[in-house]
Design the sequence.
């Protein structure tokens, strides 16, 4: 899938699906290598008619459930960057990649200054302030203005299926985050989507600049990998702990 909000700009952008297999540069499944993941990523991007792409264009994040966002340098191309959960860049030719299987992938584009970003919006990352960190760094490094930043929110688990484990619930129930709770029968569900929207708007991103694909990974597990669905049905995917990828890049 691709975001219409980015279509008229000279960007590389898209979200892979299960038909391309798991894309994970540090895979849990020993059958999947970094090289194979890169090969699948390139195959997906070329299916979108991005012809001049190779593994040296891609930048993957280690993804440690932090708020750490890296300002990319030319030397980062083709690497897995340790200790980060997001990137921003204004370097043409770089394609930034985040992998997920229920967390919120967030794509950013400053349409005036031609700067991009991609964030791993896991619950912990969002709570720690990854969105604030990314927007602040775009303002500082690229002179971005929040009103010029366009945002695409990719498939992730929605409040309909994202129930909290008991320990997580206990840790959050006495905090301001309880406003994202939804009680259904005996379980408490958490609204990652609303948390993401609120964090973006708090940083000054206009609501009309934010486009949500409205796809739940759990509900559409056959098209987009869902870790929670795999927990319930461990053999639903041919590979263990599979991930799909979200891409954004500036064309040369």
Sequence:
């Amino acid at each position: 899938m691709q975001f219409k909000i980015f279509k008229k700009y000279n960007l590389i952008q898209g979200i892979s699906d299960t038909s391309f297999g798991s894309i994970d540069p540090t895979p849990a499944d020993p059958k999947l290598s970094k090289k194979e993941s890169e090969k699948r990523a390139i195959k997906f991007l070329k299916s979108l008619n991005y012809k001049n792409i190779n593994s040296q264009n891609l930048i993957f994040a280690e993804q440690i459930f932090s708020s750490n966002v890296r300002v990319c340098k030319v030397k980062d191309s083709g690497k897995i960057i340790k200790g980060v959960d997001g990137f921003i860049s204004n370097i043409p030719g770089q394609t930034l990649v985040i992998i997920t299987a229920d967390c919120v992938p967030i794509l950013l584009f400053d349409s005036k200054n031609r700067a991009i970003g991609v964030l791993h919006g896991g619950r912990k990352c969002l709570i720690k302030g990854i969105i604030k960190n990314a927007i602040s760094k775009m303002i500082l490094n690229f002179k971005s203005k929040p009103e010029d930043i366009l945002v695409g929110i990719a498939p992730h688990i929605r409040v309909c299926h994202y129930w909290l484990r008991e320990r997580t619930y206990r840790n959050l129930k006495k905090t301001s985050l309880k406003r994202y709770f939804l009680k259904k029968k005996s379980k408490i569900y958490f609204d990652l989507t609303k948390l993401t929207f609120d964090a973006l708007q708090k940083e000054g991103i206009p609501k009309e600049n934010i486009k949500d694909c409205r796809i739940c990974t759990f509900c559409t597990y056959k098209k987009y990998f869902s870790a929670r669905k795999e927990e319930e049905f461990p053999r639903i995917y041919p590979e263990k702990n599979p991930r799909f990828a979200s891409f954004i890049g500036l064309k040369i």
Observations:
- The first helix runs from residue 34 to 47.
- The two ends are 22 Å apart (CA to CA).
- The chain has a mean pLDDT of 97.
